[in-house]
Amino acid sequence: MFTLFKASPKFPKIQPVNLKFIQCYFEKFEESLRNFEELQKESMGS
Fold it and tell me: Domain coordinates of the chain in residue numbers?
């Protein structure tokens, strides 16, 4: 077994994140979900 996070006495520092980057990421994610659903509908129909 292994641990992904080493136990640390200090709380891990939170990196600042770019909200625009996250927004863009989610838009792409939602678009890919829509594309995936359409592909599934097409494969069910044929």
Answer: 20-45
CA 24 to chain centre: 11
In 1-46, where does DSSP find H-type helix? 19-45
pTM: 0.50
| Angle, alpha carbons 3-22-11 (nearest 5°) | 35
SS3 8: coil
Q: What is the pLDDT of residues 1-41, one digit of tens each?
A: 556 666 666 776 777 888 899 999 999 999 999 999 999 99
Who contacts 12 (Cβ-Cβ below 8 Å, separation ≥6)? 5
Residues 23, 20: Cα–Cα separation, whole Å: 5
